[in-house]
Amino acid sequence: MSEPLIRKCVVPAAGLGTRFLPATKTIPKEMLPIVDTPTLQYIVEESVSAGIEDVILINGRGKSCIEDHFDLAVELEAVLKARGKVEELRSLRAISEMANIVSVRQKEPLGLGHAVLCAKSLVGGEPFGVILGDDIIDAEEPAIRQLALAYHKHKKGVVALMEVPAEETHLYGIAAGERLDARTIRVSQIVEKPKQNPPSNLAVIGRYVLPPSVFPILETQERGVGGEIQLTDALARLAKTEGLIGYQFEGRRYDAGDKVGYLKANIAYALKRKDMRGPLLAYLRQVVEEAERA
Ligand code: UTP
Questions:
Q1: Ligand 1 centroid from CA 153, angstroms
Q2: What is the mean pLDDT of the chain?
Q3: pTM of structure
Q4: Is the sign of the CA dihedral 99, 100, 104, 105 positive or negative?
Q5: Does residue 243 lie within any of the structural domains?
Q6: CATH code of the domain covering residue 61
Q7: For a tag site, which of 76, 92, 195, 233 has the least CB within 10 Å?
Q8: What confidence score (pLDDT) does residue 60 get?
Q9: 3-state SS class at 272
């Protein structure tokens, strides 16, 4: 196998998930299932299929079930074995063998920039990926690999971008800059959740490939929007000193941290399953018909 483009990926999953309360009082939103698989597992699977060896999970208080999910479940495996549930046993084993997962505790959810900074000593001096723990991209080529390829081509940090409607720009980090090709821009401006005059309609989506030089920037980053240490603000400084690339990835993105996004992801992933597609489509048609009649 050829050398991986990046070896390490940081997955922040230490947020409070307030948009999903009351479910997130005890269940981390990154563990809510899309059909039957936790959101975070899709993210670890994306990392693995991009050749990433180490997943650095940023975890928070009360979220230790995330670590358990990727660990061996000896008792459960014994029961499945005794009952002859071979397929379930195989898929359970595959989860615990998926990747080398290390976990760091973010003691307080001070923001995404702070969450990434918590991985500093584990990342060391090499470029690394970041995938947000509640952001799924369904793509032929893993989205994080698409970004890693752009990183190696341009030798600069890369953020994933997606066009959003003008009325939604205040919900995202927004980037703008000189267009280099159909998918790529050289970022000259990047702002977190602009209240007015967004520089474009290109939203920063939860995937990044960054140089280790972002860490000293994060160490001195002051609090921004929402009183949080924002990764976007640190990237605005990185864009000025070293340059930054924006890459419009190929694939369909679901914000599983948002209720509607979460439901869309469930429908889309259920429709991909042979055993679920028929009955679900029939039900969806019926619901649409009834809603149109009402
Ligand atoms: P979000 O802003 O979507 O997560 O961060 P949140 O703050 O938990 O969500 P709400 O708005 O209260 O519902 C995106 C990802 O970054 C992680 C979150 O866990 C999520 O997966 N995150 C966010 C951290 O790890 N630490 C933080 O301080 C903030």
A1: 30
A2: 95
A3: 0.95
A4: positive
A5: yes
A6: 3.90.550.10
A7: 195
A8: 92
A9: coil
Distance 245 CA to ligand 1 centre (A): 24
Position in ligand 1 atom list of the atom nearest CA 14:
25
Q: Which atom of ligand 1 is nearest to the CA of 229?
A: 28
Structure tokens at 69: 């999910």
Q: Is residue 56 part of a domain?
A: yes
Could you read off the pLDDT of 104-138 as tens digits, one per residue? 999 999 999 999 999 999 999 999 999 999 999 99
> pLDDT digit string (tens) for 93-112?
888 888 899 999 999 999 99
> DSSP string covering 110-169, please?
--HHHHHHTTHHHHTTS-EEEE-TTEEEE-SS-HHHHHHHHHHHHTSEEEEEEE--GGGG
| C-beta of 257 in contact with ligand 1 (< 6 A) | yes
Share of the chain above pLDDT 70, in %: 99
Give the Cα separation of 86 and 77 in Å (integer): 10
Instruction: Kindly state whether residue 45 falls inside one of the protein's structural domains.
Output: yes
CA 138 and chain centroid, separation: 11
Cα–Cα distance for residue pair 101/207, rounded to 1 Å: 18
Q: What is the pLDDT of residues 236-286, one digit of tens each?
A: 999 999 999 999 999 999 999 999 999 999 999 999 999 999 999 999 999
Q: Is the CB of 19 under 6 A from ligand 1?
A: yes
Give me the count of residues in the chain: 294
In a domain, 96, yes or no: yes
| Residue 131: domain span | 8-257
